[in-house]
């Protein structure tokens, strides 16, 4: 039977309506009265609800981790709308799994509250200082870590960071709130909590430690030393494709018999790898498939370079050619040929195997996932924030390729596609709406680079030393000129026709 052909009106999602859900919908077998808080999560978007919250929910379904319930939090004004919607449905979330064989729904109840969004973050600080909280986790995007664009180090000169250092009891940022809560715990003789990044950054735990300790040092050096000595910041790698929620997703949810105002759709794949380094205990996550290890780096490198880097290979040229989704990009013979050649010749050679998976095997899995037509993952979503994603996902492969031999022509072409996309107009003449926190500056340089291509790679905040490499500069200039004069498909055809550098 078609799960979308539900004849009854959808049931409004609330705790007291779970028993009325269709029999095909999986629901929590635990009660909210069974749960006690153990985790505060900051930055509660779709990814967290489809990933971390799902793993905790699975443990709760087994009668475990009942004292690790999640309290949601945010520090930006736009989080208030999500808070209002989730509280209206008792913090429940419908997860819609988009399997090519058919969709299914599960209601996740691991979250029990969502803190108010307020200036100064007093409630958030007070909650994190509570001894019941043993993990504070974050998804604040790759660009939210206040890193110096040239060095990758903590940027103590950022306006928000300087404000938090000067006003440690009324901070603006999530990091300032964490420091304030840790200060309170130290004062009360409590242990620190583990602070866990769930963002796509290589060495995200190390980066997070540097941010928290660095900010604390600006106002209280003794506190910084205490956090550094007794706190824990595990590195982690997260992996699940979670598209933005659209009206189509809400309609799918209704078709499954559930009236959820903020459902989440996701692919039929998840992976979570965490460094087993916690200072205040942890749930038994290994019992629900999480990999606990002391070597996260290899998993991170494989995923960030092949999957996240692969997303950028597809999305930028997809936007230029007005191909609306990632799965449609995989069906486009030109885009697929470009993707496959760059991966095989310029990315995979610089990625090491992990237990149970060679880089080529992981690429095969990624190709199947990207080609999943049930996932309506837009090129626009994937192309968002290229100013963070290119330095994080493609430029490490570019640097390795330049250092190891012949110029990486395909990665140079990928950077040329990013530049061309930022010019703000597709090849069919339609407009590409602003899609980056630094869009105005990027568009200005992208347009100027049409006549002087090297202006783009002279953006030192993104390219640094690699932007001054002669071979890369020549290839980039050649491809950008080719794209403007003859179009993206002509550039791809020339690149695909090139003889492999390994032959």
TrEMBL record:
GO terms for molecular function: oxidoreductase activity, acting on the CH-OH group of donors, NAD or NADP as acceptor. Residues 295-477 form the Mannitol dehydrogenase C-terminal domain. Keywords: Oxidoreductase. It comes from the Bacteria. Pfam families: Mannitol_dh, Mannitol_dh_C. Residues 38-286 form the Mannitol dehydrogenase N-terminal domain. InterPro entries: 6-PGluconate_DH-like_C_sf, 6PGD_dom2, Mannitol_DH, Mannitol_DH/Oxidoreductase, Mannitol_DH_C, Mannitol_DH_N, NAD(P)-bd_dom_sf. This is Mannitol 2-dehydrogenase. It comes from Ruegeria faecimaris.
């Amino acid at each position: 039977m078609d799960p979308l052909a539900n004849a009854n009106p959808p049931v409004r999602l609330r705790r007291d309506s779970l028993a009325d859900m269709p029999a095909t919908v999986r629901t929590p077998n635990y009660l909210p009265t069974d749960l006690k808080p153990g985790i505060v999560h900051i930055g509660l978007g779709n990814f967290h609800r489809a990933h971390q919250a799902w793993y905790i929910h699975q443990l709760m379904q087994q009668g475990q981790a009942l004292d690790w319930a999640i309290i949601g939090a945010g520090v930006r004004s736009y989080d208030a709308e999500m808070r209002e919607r989730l509280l209206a449905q008792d913090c429940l979330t419908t997860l819609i799994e988009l399997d090519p064989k058919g969709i299914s729904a599960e209601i996740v109840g691991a979250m029990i509250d969502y803190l108010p969004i307020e200036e100064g973050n007093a409630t958030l600080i007070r909650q994190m200082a509570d001894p019941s909280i043993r993990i504070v986790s974050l998804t604040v995007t790759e660009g939210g870590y206040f890193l110096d664009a040239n060095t990758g180090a903590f940027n103590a000169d950022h306006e928000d960071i300087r404000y938090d250092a000067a006003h440690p009891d009324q901070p603006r940022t999530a990091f300032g709130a964490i420091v304030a809560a840790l200060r309170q715990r130290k004062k009360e003789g409590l242990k620190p909590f583990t602070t866990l990044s769930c963002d796509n950054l290589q060495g995200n735990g190390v980066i997070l430690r540097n941010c928290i300790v660095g900010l604390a040092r600006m106002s209280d050096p003794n506190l910084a030393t205490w956090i550094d000595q007794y706190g824990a910041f595990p590195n982690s790698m997260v992996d699940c494709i979670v598209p933005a929620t659209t009206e189509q997703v809400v309609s799918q949810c209704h078709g499954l018999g559930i009236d959820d105002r903020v459902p989440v759709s996701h692919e039929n794949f998840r992976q979570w790898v965490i460094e087993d380094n916690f200072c205040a205990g942890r749930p038994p996550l290994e019992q629900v498939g999480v990999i606990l290890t002391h070597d996260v780096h290899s998993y991170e490198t494989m995923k960030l370079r092949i999957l996240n880097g692969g997303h950028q290979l597809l999305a930028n040229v997809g936007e230029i050619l007005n191909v609306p989704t990632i799965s449609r990009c995989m069906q486009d013979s030109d885009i697929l040929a470009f993707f496959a050649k760059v991966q095989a010749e310029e990315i995979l050679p610089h990625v090491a195997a992990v237990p149970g998976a060679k880089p080529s095997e992981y690429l095969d899995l990624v190709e199947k996932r990207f080609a999943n037509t049930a996932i309506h993952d837009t090129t626009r979503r994937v192309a968002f924030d290229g100013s963070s994603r290119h330095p994080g996902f493609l430029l490490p492969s570019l640097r390795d390729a330049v250092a190891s031999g012949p110029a990486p022509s395909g990665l140079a072409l990928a950077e040329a596609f990013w530049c061309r996309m930022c010019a703000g107009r597709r090849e069919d003449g339609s407009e590409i709406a602003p899609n980056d926190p630094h869009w105005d500056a990027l568009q200005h340089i992208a347009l100027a680079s049409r006549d002087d291509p090297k202006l783009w790679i002279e953006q030192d905040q993104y390219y640094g030393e690699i932007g001054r490499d002669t071979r890369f500069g020549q290839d980039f200039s050649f491809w950008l000129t080719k794209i403007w004069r003859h179009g993206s498909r002509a550039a791809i055809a020339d690149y695909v026709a090139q003889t492999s550098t390994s032959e």
